[in-house]
TrEMBL record:
Predominant place of localization: membrane
Annotated source species: Fibrisoma montanum
PROSITE patterns reported in the protein's UniProt record: OMPA_2
InterPro entries: 6-blade_b-propeller_TolB-like (IPR011042), Bact_OuterMem_StrucFunc (IPR050330), OMP_bac (IPR006664), OmpA-like (IPR006665), OmpA-like_sf (IPR036737), TPR-like_helical_dom_sf (IPR011990), WD40 (IPR011659)
Domain OmpA-like: 643-765
This protein's name: Flagellar motor protein MotB
CC annotations in GO: cell outer membrane
Leader sequence segment: 1-22
Compartments (UniProt record): Cell outer membrane
Length: 765
């Protein structure tokens, strides 16, 4: 009997050993796929391992669950990620803190904000230095703030989307360049092992007008209502929805460029303003060891190309690329002087950060991290700069609805001085939303999202903001009659915007923005100025709203004016204009908006001083005498000109006889005007710039122009201006203004236009 027992026991141990060996072999095979970043295959093998592992070795089970959850996370399968991380949190008490973070993110991506809030709280308890725990815990107490402007937007899935991923649109020649992994034709089908989808290429659709939001009825969408989550019901979130029968047919898109698309990934792009220069994202294409990092991964790089005769040529990789980290997602500023991009290079704040680099005459500077205002411990991606120079980007580190949300930052001197703003639903959802491009006022545009099904179904959406109308009604306070032709100055969040004029009904209309504080100042001759405040920080269900301003009759004088830059006589924004009553020392101050305008009330029998000042501009002062109490003209209209550093002015009528450099009488009169300007602004320093025509040699013309500039400087000094405030420089024939270069026949009058003198402001204080 004992022998039989020993034999059976030995047989059982052998069977257990074989089973355990098979289980370990299966786990090792899954781990190999995981290490190779083949997440689709890894998911299948981990699920099979967990399903067949009946005896469940706790160490191996925990390892499999941890890597399975991470694989689902990488595949953007948030529902399965939630399931796996939920099991880990339920069964293990000593998890790494990031497990709570990943679980919180998966819950939020599935619209379960209250459960997510609890997991963010647990994560914050363990990782107090990571601000995401605290920020999201507070943020998910009330998600309605992300839906304040939702009723003003319409969102539409555009007909260029395929069954594969389509994302990251960019404007190009009236159409869109975008990224797609749509199926390719041909015998060989290339797939990316990460998620078994085709590699990414660049595609082009030639006409954005075919892709805009159609004029069809809107219906509430559960995707926009928090994914069916009953915990938080946002207000009036709307999305364009169409039935299967109403779906527009797929609009044909073509491959963007045969020279730019390769066998690897090509990703987001940006163009210079003239669209002749492109920077685009691509996998490191170098062969052998140079093509992969030390971890064996092909990182993303940025490449540039030039359009010559309709073809993209001269592909160059940018100097700050590396095989050890990724750089991608480029975005030029409107003036092409800087480019934003994303990188996980060492020294950042989180996964990927937004960087900026200077671009000058084809030369790249050194990348600079955008700092804590923009970047977080999470991932910041897909930057875009609108036509006013302000920044949009996607992030999962700033408070949002889940996954990647799109954020906006108003920049001043490259700094997000007001922080960042979540653009809200319905542009943002609980899934990944990214790659937004739009106009200056975010009225229309396009963005990418995987809100439809999640996982790898990125689609491109168009959006349009409808008007949330506010009527500003101006009345006579005594008669309650509407006042026609009253000026209404609009201020938003303390900044001057534009000036509206009331109609015969005393009404001026405005489309208001969400999350903003407004002030409206009404001005009319014969009445005292008055103002009213209005806030959209709280949402109103009314499609049209009204505010009223009542004006009292007054003997005061109204001052109205515009600040302009002297160099081009265009309105100057951001100028601080102060009107000081020299009798009672009271002051009124405004900061000009895009129209450069200002309005003040002036009391009678008091002198006033008007001051206009802005950084890098000379301070302008103007004095006004006492206004009589019974003046017939109750409105003082004036324009103020300001001089800025770097402005270049041509001194009219300062021409020189051929091969001469002495000051002619007509030139002396013009130089006297410059002398007067320098005496008005005693801190101003200028450069005297002299030019010649193209006749004679370059060397001769340089010497001649230097003599001419010196002659002008000597004349100005003779009129009492300190020499240290002046610089004389000759430019010869290097800056011809009318095409009369060597070899071109021109009249004597045309040549004389090039024999000119200018002055450039070097400093104003």
């Amino acid at each position: 009997m004992n022998r039989i027992v020993r034999v059976l026991l030995f047989a059982g141990l052998a069977l257990w050993s074989l089973t355990a060996q098979a289980q370990s072999t299966r786990l090792r095979a899954a781990n190999k796929q995981f290490d190779n970043l083949s997440y689709v295959t890894a998911v299948r093998m981990y699920e099979e391992f967990l399903r067949t592992d009946k005896k469940k070795d706790p160490v191996e089970t925990r390892e499999a669950l941890t890597k399975l959850g991470y694989s689902y996370r990488k595949l953007q399968d948030t529902r399965n990620a939630e399931r796996v991380y939920g099991e880990l949190v339920k069964n293990y008490n000593d998890l790494d803190s990031e497990m709570y973070l990943f679980y919180a993110q998966a819950l939020a991506a599935n619209g379960k904000y209250r459960e997510s809030q609890k997991m963010y709280s647990r994560y914050g308890e363990q990782q107090s230095e990571d601000l995401r725990g605290r920020k999201f815990t507070v943020s998910y107490m009330d998600v309605n703030r992300f839906y304040r402007d939702s009723s003003s937007y319409r969102v539409h899935n555009i007909p260029i989307n395929s069954r594969q991923a389509d994302f990251s649109p960019m404007f190009y020649k009236g159409g869109l360049v975008f990224v797609s992994s749509r199926d390719e034709s041909g015998v060989i089908r290339r797939v990316f092992s990460w998620n078994q989808t085709p590699f990414l290429d660049l595609y082009f659709h030639p006409d954005t007008n075919q892709l805009k939001v159609p004029n069809i009825e809107r219906r509430p969408s559960m995707a926009m209502l928090g994914g069916g989550n009953t915990e938080a019901k946002p207000i009036e979130a709307m999305e364009e929805t169409t039935s299967a029968e109403e779906q527009q047919p797929l609009t044909k898109a073509q491959k963007f460029s045969r020279t730019l698309n390769t066998k690897y990934h090509e990703g987001p792009v940006t163009f210079t303003k003239d669209q002749s220069f492109i920077v685009f994202t691509r996998n490191n294409g170098a062969k052998g060891k140079a093509g992969k990092s030390q971890e064996g991964v092909r990182k993303l790089k940025l490449y540039s190309a030039v359009n010559k005769n309709g073809k993209w040529t001269d592909v160059q990789d940018l100097p700050f690329n590396s095989a050890e980290y990724s750089v991608g997602h480029p975005a030029f500023t409107p003036d092409n002087t800087r480019m934003y991009f994303v990188s996980d290079m060492p020294g950042g704040y989180g996964g990927t950060d937004v960087y900026v680099v200077e671009f000058n005459n084809g030369q790249w500077g050194t990348p600079v991290n955008m700092g804590r205002e923009i970047n977080t411990e999470g991932n910041e991606m897909f930057p875009y700069v609108d036509e006013t120079g302000n920044l949009y980007f996607a992030s999962d580190g700033h408070e949002g609805l889940g996954g990647l949300d799109i954020f906006y930052a108003e920049l001043k001197d490259g700094v997000a001085y007001k922080g960042v703003e979540n653009v809200g639903a319905p542009i943002n959802s609980e899934k990944d939303d990214f790659g937004l491009i739009t106009d200056a006022s975010r009225t229309t545009g396009f963005f990418s999202s995987n809100r439809k099904k999640g996982i790898t179904d990125d689609d491109i959406y168009s959006f349009k903001r409808t008007c949330k109308q506010l009527n500003i009604l101006v009345y006579d306070a005594k008669t309650n009659m509407p006042l026609e032709n009253a000026d209404v100055r609009i201020l938003r969040n303390g900044s001057s915007q534009d000036l509206r004029l009331t109609n015969v009904e005393g009404r001026a209309e405005l489309c208001v923005e969400s999350n903003a504080e407004y002030e409206f100042k009404a001005v009319k001759e014969g009445f005292a100025m008055n103002s009213v405040r209005f806030s959209t920080l709280t949402q109103s269900s009314k499609p049209v709203m009204n505010v009223s301003i009542y004006l009292e009759r007054s003997e005061n004088t109204i001052m109205k004016g515009v600040v302009k830059t002297e160099v081009n006589q265009k309105p100057a924004s951001g100028v601080k204009v102060t009107l000081r009553n020299e009798k009672d020392k009271s002051e009124q101050t405004v900061v000009t908006g895009p129209d450069g305008g200002y309005e003040f009330a002036m009391k009678p029998n008091a002198p006033y001083t008007l001051t206009a000042q802005k950084d890098q501009y000379a301070v302008k002062k103007a004095k006004y005498g006492k206004q009589p109490k019974k003046a017939t003209n109750k409105v003082v209209t004036d324009s103020v000109g300001i001089y800025g550093v770097g402005d270049v002015f041509q001194l009219k009528n300062i021409y020189y006889d051929l091969n001469k450099f002495f000051i002619r009488p007509d030139a002396a009169r013009e130089l006297d005007r410059l002398v007067g300007l320098l005496k008005e602004y005693p801190e101003m320093k200028v450069e005297i710039r002299s030019h010649t025509d193209a006749r004679a040699s370059d060397g001769y013309n340089i010497r001649l122009s230097e003599n001419r500039a010196r002659a002008a400087l000597d004349y100005i000094v003779s009129r009492g201006i300190t020499p240290s405030r002046l610089v004389a420089r000759g430019y010869g024939e290097s800056e011809i203004v009318n095409g009369c270069v060597d070899g071109v026949n021109c009249s004597e009058n045309e040549h004389q236009q090039n024999r000119r003198t200018e002055f450039k402001i070097l400093a104003v204080q």
